[in-house]
C-alpha cells in the first residue's frame, strides 16, 4: 500500500535534483499541492503553493531555492537547472499565473524558496 499524503511529505526540498522536484510538483497537482516557504528578505516566512511548472536544464552556480525573476518569468534554482513557475498561489489569494503575480508582487534580490 502507498503511504498517506500529508503536509510534511508535500513540502518541496530545493536541494534535490531538478527531475525529482518537477515530478513531485506535477504529481501533487491539483491536490494536495506541493508547497514551500518563501523568504523574501524579511523575517516572515510565507507558505506558497506551486501548481504548474516547467523544467529548464542548465548548469549554474546559484544556491538551491534562489529566485530569479524578470517582468514575465519566475525561475527557482535547483540541482541541474531551474524550475520555471507558471502557476502559483500566495496565502489568502487565488491561484494565478506568474505574469499576474509579477505585476503586483516584488521579489527581493536575495529571495529564496525554502
Element layout with pairings:
Blueprint: H1 18-27, E1 34-39, E2 45-57, E3 67-69, E4 74-78, E5 81-89, E6 96-97, H2 98-104, E7 112-113
Antiparallel strand pairs: 1-2, 1-7, 2-5, 3-4, 4-5, 5-6
Care to describe what's here?
With 114 residues, the protein is an alpha+beta fold. The chain has a single domain, classed as Methionyl-tRNA Fmet Formyltransferase, Chain A, domain 2. Helices cover 15% and strands 35% of the residues. It is built from two helices and seven strands; from the N terminus they run αββββββαβ. It has helices at 18-27, 98-104; strands at 34-39, 45-57, 67-69, 74-78, 81-89, 96-97, 112-113. Strands 1, 2, 3, 4, 5, 6 and 7 form a seven-stranded antiparallel sheet that branches. The N and C termini lie far apart (30 Å).
Question: What key phrases describe this protein's structure?
Answer:
single chain; alpha+beta; 114 residues; globular; Methionyl-tRNA Fmet Formyltransferase, Chain A, domain 2; 2 helices
Low-confidence stretches: none
And the CATH topology? Methionyl-tRNA Fmet Formyltransferase, Chain A, domain 2
In angstroms, what is the radius of gyration? 13 Å
- Shape verdict: globular
**What is the CATH architecture annotation?**
Roll
Q: Average pLDDT, to the nearest integer?
A: 92
Summed up, the helix count is 2
N-end to C-end Cα span: 30 Å
State the share of residues found in helices, binned by percent: 10-25%
Return the CATH class: Alpha Beta
Number of strands: 7
Fraction of residues in β-strands = 35-45%
The CATH H-level superfamily is Formyl transferase, C-terminal domain
